[in-house]
Specification:
The protein is mainly β. The protein has no helices and 14 strands.
């Protein structure tokens, strides 16, 4: 009807630094709203607009430049996002799950993808500001692959387009 919901609108002091993300982990209507703010903190709200009690705002080293992504591989869940130089891989409580050993300037328009290495190991795939592929392994170690230089604002998608079981990189 165009009316505000109870507890809305929410005033975000200092403003938002990237898009909000909304997830329903169990598909049960229990939505979580992630709000990255200019004060270098990531807040988490319920669908009712109240801060989630079990979540302490995550404090980042620099301004958050990507929305939070919820990724799942088998029974493992990850919340992944980046500030200007660091990738954060957290559990649902906002605690570090994987701590990358190398920092890099993340391309803001590039999402994170999970790639299975074998039955037990995965790695996260994204791109840096120079357009290079960045791999973050499940132990936190990193590798970089240079295919071609792209602008900081390039778009990147990883998918198996031709159905051969191998992921292609699309810029």
């Amino acid at each position: 009807n165009g009316n505000y919901l109870d507890n809305y609108p929410i005033e975000i002091k200092g403003g938002i630094s990237s898009e909000i993300s909304v997830y329903d982990y169990e598909n049960d209507g229990n939505y979580r709203i992630f709000v990255p703010c200019n004060n270098k903190k990531l807040y988490l709200y319920t669908k009712n607009g109240t801060p989630l009690d079990s979540w302490n705002p995550v404090v980042t080293k620099d301004q958050i430049i990507t929305p939070v992504q919820y990724l799942k591989f088998k029974d493992n869940e990850y919340l992944v996002f980046a500030d200007n130089l660091k990738t954060y891989i957290l559990n649902r409580r906002g605690e570090p799950k994987i701590v990358p050993t190398k920092n890099f300037p993340k391309a803001p328009n590039s999402k994170y993808y999970i790639e299975s290495i074998d039955e037990y190991n995965i790695r996260f795939v994204t791109t840096n500001a120079a357009g290079e592929i960045e791999y973050i392994n499940s132990d936190g170690s990193s590798d970089t692959k240079n295919i071609k230089s792209y602008s900081r604002n390039h778009n990147f998608v990883m998918d198996d387009i031709n159905g051969d079981g191998q992921n292609e990189f699309i810029f």
